[in-house]
Task: structure prediction
Amino acid sequence: MTTLASGTTASRDDLARDALTVLQPGFTGTTAPDWLLRRLGEGLASVGLFGRNIASPDQLAALTARLRAEREDVLVAIDEEGGDVTRLEVRTGSSFPGNHALGAVDDVELTREVARELGSRLAACGVNFNWAPSADVNSDPENPVIGVRSFGADPDLVARHTAAYVTGLQSAGVIACTKHFPGHGDTAVDSHLALPRIDAAAPLLAERELAPFRAAIAAGTRAVMSAHILVPALDPDRPATLSRGVLTDLLRGELGYDGLIVTDGMEMQAVAGTYGIERGSVLAIAAGADAICVGGGLADDETVRRLRDALVAAVRSGELPEERLADAAERVRRLARWAATTARPGPAATADDEVGLRAARRALKRTGDSFTPLTEAPYVAAFTPAANIAVGDETPWGVAAELLRLLPGTRTGSFAGPDAGHAVLEAAGRRRVVAVVRDEHRHPWMASALDTLLTARPDTIVVEMGVPQAAPRGALHIATHGAARVCGRAAAEVIAGAPEA
Result:
């Protein structure tokens, strides 16, 4: 037995089991490694999946079935937002537009329907926990990590669509994990790379950032993910993930939330680079978090062992109250029991773009006085910025593949940097140019390339697949409000004049 600072006693095995229970680790490969299965037998209750773990719906269903053979009520989590951030369709692009497109349509029933269909596909593959939706209000258009992952810049719009998404996802038996509390929208730094800071005053935070989270709580979201951001008005010293004032006093106390609190990835530099993952995990649980997400980058048994041992050592030293760790572990187990009795995995789902494509078509915004659809194969120039870590660079995007299907012979190239405009003109020759951009307003080189291109070829068609903040230009400008595969298809249909099937 181990004597704790609180005067209670707990066996070493009980502490280790509780410490494992609060972890949400990842792994590499498309089959469950032996170490992961062993940890499930020792108390691990959650597993996180990423694009590297998924080859097909059938393979994913077999993987989750193998996990449940070891622990029937395991929480299988995934980062499946639809739109730009997809893991189910990481190699093809998503069948569903993301939040920004849904916000542009502003039909809450459509958002609910999309989330329900997405949830049904996850459940069919045995996934019962989704790190989505993003409830961030994209109030800073320069935000490098949220962007089209947000429903928009208006708090009321974001709130009603967040609630609809939560309702739709959970109606399919999949846990919604609303993120990134208390709101990551007003940041100019990517928390994967460094610690962002929001200097808004408390009244503005309450009116803007917190509104969607209130709506998600009212809608019954069963999980909330914390953000690795410093908000001095709430806590001048520690980022939200490590702040008792943010997680316990605000989220649990003021907002009355009683579900699971999970951290964003602990290997992200906003925490790992300042506190380290072991220290950060201890501080997060002490602050009120119930689950530690890790595994996007660090995905091995050694990471699990390090975090387990750090939590046990913190309890034994009195730094982390044993009751807090036990409470966190029980919240995880309670949610796992709910999911086990609610989600009913069925046969792997087959792709059906109907709901997502319908939403993507409705999200398009066209600008241009007169446009005659193309009948000859164009040259598609993709102005390609560096992808943020959340989106990744594995997932294809753009309109070239869809235009090739509609206009055989279509050619394409990817361009970046100060000479991109001239390079496109040389590569395109006499072909009509379709320029595809992503957040033109955030990339001066991209805007300059368009200047060069449009000066020489004013008949160029411009497709904006990021946040449409820059002024529309070109013979035809199409804002898709996201780079999902269905967004590219919807834009290609307009360019080629293809009738909607």
Remarks:
- The first strand starts at residue 2 and ends at 3.
- Residues 1-8, 345-351 have pLDDT under 50 and may be disordered.
